[in-house]
Specification:
- The structure holds two protein chains of two kinds.
- Chain A is α/β, with parallel strands linked by helices.
- Chain A has ten helices and ten strands.
- Chain A folds into two domains: 167 residues, P-loop containing nucleotide triphosphate hydrolases (Rossmann fold); 64 residues, no CATH class.
- Helices cover 39% and strands 25% of the residues of chain A.
- The relative contact order of chain A is 0.17.
- Chain B is an all-alpha fold.
- Chain B has one domain.
- Classes of the chains: A alpha/beta, B mainly alpha.
- The interface between A and B is medium-sized, with 34 and 30 residues.
Chain lengths: 247, 264
């Protein structure tokens, strides 16, 4: 199956700091892949490069078979993202924000699409409210609505449930997983919640100091490295990355 | 090129201004107060000068055109600043929008707001001080064209500077047109300037506009050639400004400044 996302030897260097070092991976349609690692590991840098807002120092990103460096605008109509640090402008209503981003992503039948997504994500009751007046959990759902508006083939989620209560987080997880299955959407998901990752991801990539150290099934990977859980493995990778680098 | 994306930028600004008195007032207030203050000042000068020279068309006409220039420039930068203030750069530039679509969207907001403000300014000057700038006639279109092209250029240069140097460079937004005012001859003829500043004013499109306005209002004649030079210069500045923006955007993407904009 042709991968939705294909990264080859991707690196990003800021003067002396190598934020991302020669990483390669791919994601198939309908696959949910977790990108895990401690703060500063290079996860957000990788996502920024995938969104085309950060130029790689070297390497290649192909999305749906097209080179991002040369077809950014065209590719981005099939990609979207939601991140805990990128809420929609608080000075416009939810509906206005979704309408503007719908236009930017070239969504057809936009008004009906907004209604359908608002219903799915249960944001109808505050759709006429300004985003700045919403709780962080409500804002997260609105950001997710923006991310699903163009029915993306590739969805990038940077800690999408970080500001949600357990119940809302559970609901959002279920909706994203269901969405990915029905639409065959490839998802790259970063999170610090290992239980969440274990429940939604079919594969995880452990990143530390800009390198992918481990890759595999989140249910099997801990045992392969003599750890009881994914969280224990995460802590070990975060604290002793060199141990895993040599493996 | 997607007209939907260009329209999105214009519509977004409409959503922000619509039903928001603070933003709406900000668009009109400066020019209205300038017209009132300069209207009374010129009236006083006319009385003090015992009507040997009518200051109203020269000074009030100049203040309206100067206000128009500032409005055009701010019509470009305000939507950009709204994105900056609301932390929307990542969402915006991670969307499929292209540089030229974004810039054309900003032009759209600038055209709309400056046209409305200009109409209000004309009406106010006419009703309050009996001065109708439209009596300048067809040359006014050429004067406005030069101001419009140069105002857009100043707007793009301003946003390029803010994009490159971050929120701490926001003050460029408010000062940019004034950097050119000493050699623009807004209120005095270029001949008043020292020789070296007169030379500098030759590459400033604004100097042709305000010299042209004085020529029409004082002497009642209009020489199109200097204004055509002004228009060509303004167009060159506009193209140059876009190239600067495109280059700045590349640098910003290379350095990753969009993702950590607030740190600059």
């Amino acid at each position: 199956m042709t991968p939705v996302l294909e990264i080859k030897n991707l690196s990003k260097k800021y003067e002396s700091l190598e934020a991302v070092q020669d990483i390669s991976f791919s994601i198939a349609p309908g696959e949910i892949v977790g990108l895990l690692g401690p703060n500063g590991a290079g996860k957000t840098t990788t996502i920024s490069m995938l969104l085309g807002v950060l130029e790689p120092t070297s390497g290649q990103i192909k999305i749906l078979g097209q080179d991002l460096a040369h077809h950014r605008s065209e590719i981005m109509t099939k990609v979207n993202f939601a991140a805990v640090y990128a809420h929609l402008p608080g000075n416009m209503t939810v509906w206005q924000n979704l309408y503007i981003f719908g236009l930017l992503y070239g969504v057809s039948d936009l008004k009906n699409k907004i209604q359908a997504i608002a219903h799915t994500l249960n944001i109808e009751k505050f759709i006429k409210m300004k985003c700045g007046l919403l709780s962080s959990g409500e804002n997260t759902r609105v950001t997710l609505a923006k991310a699903l508006l163009n029915s993306p083939s590739l969805l990038l989620l940077d800690e999408p449930t970080a500001s949600l209560d357990p119940s809302s987080a559970h609901l959002i997880r279920e909706q994203i997983v269901a969405y990915s299955k029905t639409k065959n959407t490839a998802v790259l998901w970063t999170s610090h919640n290992m239980q969440e990752v274990e429940s939604v991801c079919s594969r995880v990539l452990f990143v530390s100091r800009g390198k992918i150290l481990l890759e595999g099934d989140p249910k099997i990977l801990p045992h392969e490295h003599n750890k009881q859980s994914l969280e224990e493995l995460f802590i070990a990778v975060a604290r002793e990355p060199l141990t895993f680098e040599t493996q | 090129m997607s007209w939907k994306r260009i329209w999105a930028i214009v519509l977004r600004q409409y959503y922000l201004i619509h039903k928001n008195a603070t933003r709406l007032v900000n668009i009109f207030l400066w020019l209205i107060f300038d017209i009132i203050v300069w209207g009374f000042t010129t009236r006083f000068l006319n009385q003090a000068g015992q009507a040997n020279f009518n200051f109203i068309p020269v000074l009030l006409g100049a203040i309206i055109l100067w206000g128009f220039l500032i409005r055009v420039q701010q019509g470009v930068i305000l939507p950009f600043l709204e994105d900056m203030w609301s932390g929307n750069f990542l969402n915006l530039f991670a969307s499929p929008i292209k540089n030229r679509e974004y810039i054309l969207g900003l032009f759209g907001t600038s055209i709309t707001t400056s046209a409305v403000v200009f109409t209000v300014a004309i009406a106010l000057a006419s009703s309050a001080f009996g001065y109708n700038l439209l009596t300048v006639g067809l040359p006014l279109l050429l004067l406005l064209l030069v101001l419009f092209l140069f105002g857009l250029a100043l707007g793009i240069i301003t946003i390029s500077l803010i994009l490159r140097f971050g929120p701490s460079a926001e003050w460029f937004a408010w000062i940019m047109p004034f950097l050119f005012s000493p050699i623009s001859g807004v209120f005095y003829p270029i001949a008043t300037l020292p020789h070296w500043l007169q030379i500098a004013s030759k590459i400033n499109p604004l100097s042709y506009v305000f010299e042209g306005l004085r020529e029409v209002t004082i002497q009642g004649i209009f020489s199109p050639n200097p204004l055509i030079i002004g228009a060509i210069l303004a167009l060159i500045y506009l193209v140059g400004a876009y190239l600067i923006f495109a280059h700045t955007f590349k640098v910003v993407v290379k350095k990753g400044l969009l993702a950590r904009f607030s740190a600059e």
